[in-house]
Amino acid sequence: MRYRVTHTTTYRYQQAVGLSYNEVRMQPRPCPNQQLLSSQLKINPLPCDYRTRTDFFGNQVAWFSIREPHREFVVTASSEVQIFAQSVQLDFNHGMSWELVKEALWNDRSEPLLEARQFALDSPFISADAELAGYAQASFTPGKALIEAIHDLMQRIHRDFTFDPEFTNLATPLTTVLQHRRGVCQDFAHLAIGCIRSQGLAARYVSGYIETLPPPGKKKLVGADASHAWFSVYLPDLGWMDFDPTNNQLPGDRHITVAWGRDYSDVTPLKGVIFGGQNHELKVAVEVENLGV
User: Fold this and answer.
1) Coiled-coil segments, which residues (predicted)?
2) Cis peptide leading into 45, omega within 30 of 0?
3) Contact by Cβ (8 Å): 75, 41
C-alpha cells in the first residue's frame, strides 16, 4: 500500500521568539517492509542553519536554527511511502520460551543479541519496577513461548485500559497510568515496554502513523489523523516484531514507521530550545492519505 503523510506543527507565541534550535524526526525510516519514496521538510521562518544526520538508532534527523524574531513557527513534513504486507505466518503457541530468550539475551554475545540488550535497560520514561512486573506476571507464565506471552500482554492492555486523551501528558508516570487504567497510545506502548523489561527482556518504542478510517457513510476529515506509537520485541528466531496495544493488532500495511528508540524521548517528532516566546499555542495536524497499491 502506498501512502502520502503530511504532518504540520504550528507554534504561535504571545511574545516574539528571538532564537531557536530544533530537531525534527518526521521522515519515515527504511524498514524491511517499508520503502521511502520521497520526503520534504518545509520550515517557516526559513532556517539560517540546516543539516541532516542519522542518529544512534538509525533514525533520520533534521537539525536547524532560526535566528530572526518570529511569533509563528511552522514545520510541515510531507512524505510518500510504500508499505509491503508481512508474509510471515505466526504460530503463537510455538517458539522459544520467554525464559530461554531471556537467558540468551544476557549470555549470548552475538551481534543481534548484543544490540537488542540495550533495549532491556531502564530509559528516561520507563523504569521497570515491581508494579509493572506484577501486571506482566499473568502473561509471562512459566514455559510460555515469548511470542504468545507478548501477544497476551498486548490483548490484556487493550482490554484493561481506556483510551483517554485528556488523562495523561508527557510528565504522567507509568504508575499513574497503571493505577487508573487510562491513557493514550504513547502510554500503552511505554506500559508494555516496562512490563517486558521487568521480565528481563528487550523491547523498543516505535513512533509513526496509522491510516484511520472514517465512520461508515462519513467522509474522512483532512488533518484528522494523528501520530501513533506502538512497541517492538526482539525474537531470536524472527528478529524484531511490532505489536500495537492501542488497536490490539500486529502492525501491517496500515502502520507507517518513522523512528524507534528506548522510549518517546529518543523519537520526539519536534523538540528544541527557544529564547523568548514563553507563552505559546500549539497545533498539530496529520493527514495519512491512501494512494492505493
Assistant:
1) none
2) yes
3) yes
CA 171, distance to chain mean position in Å, is 17
Does any domain span residue 224?
yes
CB distance 83 to 210 below 8 Å: no
pLDDT tens-place string over residues 121-141 = 999 999 999 999 999 999 999
Beta strand extents in 136-214 (DSSP E only): 162-163, 182-183, 203-210
In a domain, 139, yes or no: yes
Q: State the pLDDT at residue 194.
A: 98
Q: What is the pLDDT of residues 145-183, one digit of tens each?
A: 999 999 999 999 999 999 999 999 988 999 999 999 999
State whether 125 and 114 are in the same domain: yes
Angle of helix 185-198 relative to helix 146-160, nearest 10 degrees, comes to 140
188: domain CATH number is: 3.10.620.30
Q: Is residue 203 part of a domain?
A: yes
pTM listed for this prediction: 0.93
Count how many domains the chain has: 2
Q: How many helices (H) and strands (E) are present in the chain, helices listed first?
A: 6, 13
Phi and psi dihedrals of 233, rounded to 5?
Answer: -125, 145
**CATH code of residue 59:** 2.60.40.2250
The DSSP call for residue 269 is: S
232, 240 contact by CB (below 8 A): yes
Domain that holds residue 27: 2-84+268-292
Residue 89 resides in a domain: no
Could you tell me the CA-to-CA distances from 223 to 44, 105, 134, 156, 220 in Å, in that order? 19, 42, 39, 31, 9
